[in-house]
Structure formats: C-alpha cells, structure tokens
Design a protein that fits this description.
A 9-stranded antiparallel sheet has the order 2-3-4-5-1-6-9-8-7, with helices on one face. Helix 1 (17-24) runs antiparallel to helix 2 (89-107). By secondary structure, the chain is of the alpha+beta class. It has helices spanning 17-24, 89-107, 203-224, 227-234, and strands spanning 2-6, 30-42, 50-63, 69-74, 77-82, 111-126, 156-162, 169-176, 183-194. It has 2 domains: 1-109, no CATH class; 117-198 and 215-236. It is globular.
C-alpha cells in the first residue's frame, strides 16, 4: 500500500533518517537506504558537451527480521509492503495505522494526494500435454489471430481503466513466466488507486479510501479469474 504525500516545502529528506531509525527500528530492525543517481548530458554545437550528475536519497526501507514485511519512508510518501505468506488486509490494518502515525510525526506531510493498493499474485497453472487452456482459468485472456496455426508460448496483457462509479484508477497486468516443471506460473498484478486529496491526520478518511479500493480490487479479482482458477487459491 502506498500513500503519496506532499511534504513541507524546503524539507531536507535526508534529515529524516535519524528520526525514522528511532521510530521504526524496534519492530523493523533491518535498515536499507535507497539512492538515486541521475546523469544529464548537454550537447553543444559550438563547444564540448557537459555532464551534470545528481544523486540523493530516494527512500528509507525498514524490514522485519524475516524480511517478509517492510515499511518505506519515501520522498513521495509512505509505503507498507507484505510479502508471501500473507493473510488478510484486516490483519495488517492496525500495523499500517500505527506506522502511518509514526510517519506523520517524523515527516509532517501537509497533504495526502493519492492512495494505492497493489496485489501481486503468482498463480501456478497445471500443464497438461505441455500446454494449458487459458480460458479455463481466466475470464480475460489473450487471443491469437490464428489459434489453429499459432501456438502461444508467452503473453503480456495490460489494461488501464477508470471506475465509473468512483473515478478510481485501475491497472491490470497478466503475464506468463517460464514453465516450472508441470506448472505455468502466471503473474496477476492488480493495482487500484484513488487520486483524491485529504488531511494526513484523518485516518478515518484514509481507512475509507482503503476500503473502497479493496472492494474494487476484489471485484476485479473475481471478474478476472474463473471458479476453477479461484479453487487453486482455496485448495493449494
């Protein structure tokens, strides 16, 4: 989950490292700073080219001991990430709220401008006779111009959309990875975002946005996968 924010004008992001360490390191003991490095080359007709180099801190990552859960303090805002195995968003919301309030104390954001939920599922489809019928598992699946003559060996489907009821943004990606034994791994990347401004201290409003995005994400999830595919999650 990402909460994009506007930070106070003139704030030096690098100065947040020490208070961030004090706030997060008790439960997230592993610390990793992320840096950016930019090169800008200016070509001149009447003289030598010039190269400008800019570098700086982009984010501070705080990871739990097993590295399955992490907090990010970013130039653009705050992120909470949970890796597999994971349960329900309900189980993580208290920790998201707790760490968000710590972020408020150290970064003092002046405005929330976007909230994003992103779920990435890796689905193992069983291969039969070396292939798989994608229509058996996905309600939205790729099509070849001549399925008798051509054999699909990989695919990447991407859809960007807007929810007409809420105006929330949607980005859906389905892509295949290389076969693993008797399975074809398929990545289902399901991202929803609400580009609305709000007060950073208003957790009730933030929680309401999260709930709306979650409902939209679930709607897309169920409209993308067939019951057969859903049963792969229910009975691993």
């Amino acid at each position: 989950m990402d909460i994009e924010c506007d930070l106070p004008p003139g704030q030096q992001f690098a100065a947040l490292e020490v208070p961030a360490l004090e706030g997060f390191r008790d439960r997230y003991p592993k610390f990793l700073p992320l840096y950016t490095l930019e090169h800008q080359i200016e070509m001149k007709q009447d003289g030598p080219s010039t190269v400008a180099v800019r570098h700086g801190v982009q984010a501070f990552q705080f990871l739990q001991e097993d590295e399955k859960q992490l907090i990010q303090v970013r130039v653009q805002g705050f992120s909470f990430n949970r890796l597999s195995p994971y349960s329900s968003l309900d189980d993580y919301l208290p920790e998201i709220e707790r760490t968000w309030r710590l972020y408020l104390e150290l970064a003092s954001p002046v405005q929330v401008r976007l909230i994003r939920l992103r779920y990435i599922n890796r689905i193992l489809l069983p291969l039969t006779t070396g292939g798989v019928d994608l229509d058996y598992y996905f309600k939205v699946s790729p099509r070849l111009p001549d399925e008798d003559r051509l054999k699909l060996i990989s695919f990447l489907n991407q859809h960007a959309a807007v929810d007409v009821e809420t105006g929330n943004q949607v980005n859906i990606v389905l892509t295949a990875q290389a076969p693993e034994g008797q399975n074809l791994p398929v990545i289902f990347d399901n991202t929803v975002a609400a580009a609305e401004s709000g007060e950073p201290e208003n957790w009730s409003w933030i929680r309401g946005q999260i709930n709306a995005l979650r409902a939209l994400k679930n709607h897309i999830f169920k409209r993308t996968l067939t019951d057969t595919c859903l049963n792969l999650f229910r009975h691993p």
